[in-house]
Amino acid sequence: MIPAKPVSVGLRGHLLHFLSDPSLTGSEALQSFSDGVLLISKGLISAVGPYAELSEAFHACDSQYHYPGRFILPGFIDTHTHFAQTDIVASPSPSLLHWLEHYTFPEESEFARTEHCHEVAHFFISELLRQGTTTASIFGTVHAYSCDALFQAAHEYDMRIIAGKVLMDQNCPKTLRDSARGGIEESQALIKKWHGQARLRYSVTPRFIPTSSAEQLRLAANLYHDYPDLHLQSHVAENADEVAWVKRLYPSARSYLEVYRDFGLLGARATYAHCIWFDDDDRTLMANTRTAAAFCPTSNLFLGSGLFDYRAARAAHMIVGLATDIGGGTSFSMLRTMHEAYKVAQLTGLTLTPEDCFYLATLGGARALGLDQFVGNFQVGKEADCVVLNPESTALTTRRFQKTKNLSEQLFVMMMLGDDRMIEQTHIQGSPKLDQD
Ligand SMILES: [Zn+2]
Q1: Low-confidence winner among 2-16, 272-286, 342-356 (lowest mean pLDDT)
Q2: Among 123, 177, 360, 431, whose Cα sits 20 to 30 Å from the Cα of 32?
Q3: 53 shares its domain with 80
């Protein structure tokens, strides 16, 4: 039983959100109120500003939450993850294709059992909330029921998520194979049932080029273009062996990404994880088609896949979001993911600012997923999903925080030293979702 949403909610604390991309607009991008108030009416933001101006309205709210010394940010947005890989996080493997064969495919086979789908979906959604992640673009398995279970679990918390059943009709174990047409029919049934219901959206989900026949890829593109607001998610150019495999399958294609282009699988609301083994023509193609990249630093480091070249992506005006890629990724935490993204960028000749990283994890992620009309910042009218960060979550962060000289340094300390312990509360449409000790 979901308790009814309070009509009006007020949140008070150090409010912080982005109005634009700080790499383009500099300090104007960030709006911050050190003693700020967020007013929420029926789950939507109705006002944001300093407490001095909104104190009367704050105290008139049906529910009031005061977080002194805490930061209140828009909820984190994870642009690429796999709920069915929750239980294989931290499985050692030399590389992607070995990982798929030895861990991913056996684990995903377990999702033929409906009770397993429910149990993992509930854990996964709870873990997102515990980490301050309020929106994610999520892969199911090939089993349509895996998506039903995931959507049900997210719906219980009123979350805005995107998900899809994996399309996979070749080059995988028989138990995980659909058929070109059957996979599309199952996707259509899921779209009818879930897409646009409450805050849920469907994403057409071919795993990657090698595991779908040409017919399945063609049908997937048709399905994606049949609806004006459907999403699409897949993987591209993650690992050198994978790129070579695609070259053998499509020898006349100039690049891996161009195989997707030739099938009609690039465009707005399409998100591709990794994008490591790209050249500048690929980056320009991503930008020109408004296709987004999901930057998955912990996964890319863990599987030794390579370094995402964010400097080159930025130069090409690619749309980029940040992602955990559980279970190739090693953490559900978007703070940890920012931390690793910073290090990867360092190795590719780009020093990201903390503002860049928090933008990527909030408004940047919303833009990458094509959801920025709903979430990503505190603009009036948007859905009020927020995370409350406690900078004094450990003895070390408490000590280090006392030495910080400005807001930028405080953000840097939080993303370099923070983890799930820093998440004090997660609000979905104004309502707190974490039990307090
Ligand atoms: Zn992935």
Answers
A1: 2-16
A2: 431
A3: no
Task: Measure 125 CA to ligand 1 centroid, in angstroms.
Answer: 17
The CATH number for 49's domain is: 2.30.40.10
Q: How many helices (H) and strands (E) does the chain have?
A: 18, 16
Tell me, in angstroms, the distance from the centre of ligand 1 to residue 208's CA: 9
* Cα distances (Å, whole numbers) of residue 344 to 28, 338, 388: 26, 10, 27
The answer on 104 and 236 residing in a single domain is yes
**Mean pLDDT score, 336-348:** 98
CB distance 80 to 322 below 8 Å? no
Residue 151 structural domain? 76-368
Cα(350)–Cα(309) distance, integer angstroms: 9
**Averaged over 298-316, what is the pLDDT?**
97
Mean pLDDT, rounded, of the chain:
97
**Distance from the alpha carbon of residue 37 to the mean position of ligand 1, in angstroms:** 37
236 CA distance to ligand 1 middle (Å): 9
Residues 70 and 80 in one domain: no
Q: Which of 322, 338, 368 is the last residue of a domain?
A: 368
The answer to the question of residue 2 being in a domain is no
To the nearest whole percent, how much of the chain has pLDDT over 90? 97
Residue 435 contacts by C-beta under 8 Å, 6 or more apart in sequence?
Answer: none
Is 261 a member of any domain?
A: yes
Whether residue 383 sits in one domain with residue 363: no
Tokens of 189: 């049934």
Please check whether residues 281 and 382 belong to one and the same domain: no
Is 70 exceeded by the pLDDT of residue 50? yes
CA of 80 to the centre of ligand 1 (A): 6
Q: How far is the CA of 375 from the centre of ligand 1 (A)?
A: 23
**Cβ neighbour number for residue 406 with a 10 Å cutoff:** 8
Per-residue model confidence as pLDDT tens digits over 168-207? 999 999 999 999 999 999 999 999 999 999 999 999 999 9
* Same domain? 34 vs 168: no
pLDDT confidence of residue 5: 63
In this structure, what CATH number is given to the domain that contains residue 166?
3.20.20.140
Q: What is the distance in A from the centroid of ligand 1 to the CA of 235? A: 6
Distance (Å) from CA 367 to ligand 1 centroid: 19
Q: Is the pLDDT of residue 394 over 60?
A: yes
pLDDT of amino acid 436 = 74
Three-state secondary structure readout of 278-323 = CCHHHHHHHHHCCCEEEECHHHHHHCCCCCCCHHHHHHCCCEEEEC
**pTM, full prediction:** 0.97
